[in-house]
Design a protein that fits this description.
The chain has 204 residues and is of the alpha+beta class. It has ten helices and four strands. The protein has a four-stranded mixed beta sheet. Strand 3 and strand 4 form a beta hairpin. Helix 1 crosses helix 6 and helix 6 packs across helix 9. The two termini are 31 Å apart. The structure holds glutathione (GSH).
């Protein structure tokens, strides 16, 4: 087994999906967390694309959170059974990234008026649309998972991406009971439950 070292900030952000993949697969990895005060030009230059997260595999560095999560999923059984399953999984992951990007945009907006506008759009348009798509997939797939009848990267990506909305907009979230049930199921998986219930609480 190669030596895996994930380097990311001490937040969930774009690194958490990688952590959840490793944990779900039961694969040992070093969870290296960099404090924001340590993020310097030197550290930036040492990361493949000047950003975090990156994954070191036996000392070689690889960047981009979704590429890393895809790699771990392919290696350790969190992808689908065929290319069409994988297309469905990739589509759901891309949907989660679209929502996360909108969340980040509104969260870091400097202009106060614009921020109010973006947050209203997030709550009233982006989130209901996102949750509506998820509800439809769960209704059609019937297995209680997003793809096939077992845990895949799609389930982990959705679980992780809804962490912020379920905290920020619980009244919207609660309107999609199938999505809520699915997240409860993921949170109770034996390989994830101890980590999820004890991890540090962070804003993002
Ligand atoms: N598409 C990249 C985005 C990576 C990214 O935006 N990283 C941020 C933290 S979440 C970062 O490193 N920011 C510091 C910087 O860009 O200097 C991924 O998913 O890995």
């Amino acid at each position: 087994m190669p030596a895996y070292k994930l380097v990311y900030f001490d937040i969930r952000g774009r690194g958490e999906i990688v952590r959840l993949c490793f944990l779900s697969a039961g694969v040992k990895f070093e969870d290296a967390r960099i404090d924001f005060s340590e993020w310097s030009e030197k550290v930036k230059e040492a990361s493949p694309f000047g950003q975090l997260p990156y994954l070191e595999i036996d000392g070689k560095k690889y960047a981009q959170s979704t590429a890393i999560a895809n790699y771990i999923s392919r290696e350790f059984g969190l992808y689908g059974d065929n290319s069409l399953d994988n297309l469905s999984i990739d589509g759901i992951v891309a949907l989660t990234v679209d929502y996360f990007d909108a969340w980040v945009k509104s969260h870091f907006e400097k202009d106060a008026n614009k921020k109010v506008e973006l947050q209203a759009k997030l709550k009233n348009e982006d989130l209901p649309k996102f949750l509506g798509h998820l509800d439809k997939i769960l209704t059609e797939n019937k297995s209680g998972f997003y793809v096939r009848n077992r845990l895949t990267l799609a389930d982990l990506a959705v679980y992780h991406t809804l962490d912020n909305p379920q905290r920020d907009y619980p009244e919207v979230y609660a309107q999609y009971p199938k999505v809520v049930e699915h997240r409860k199921k993921i949170a109770s998986l034996p390989r994830l439950a101890p980590y999820l219930s004890s991890r540090k609480v962070t804003e993002l």
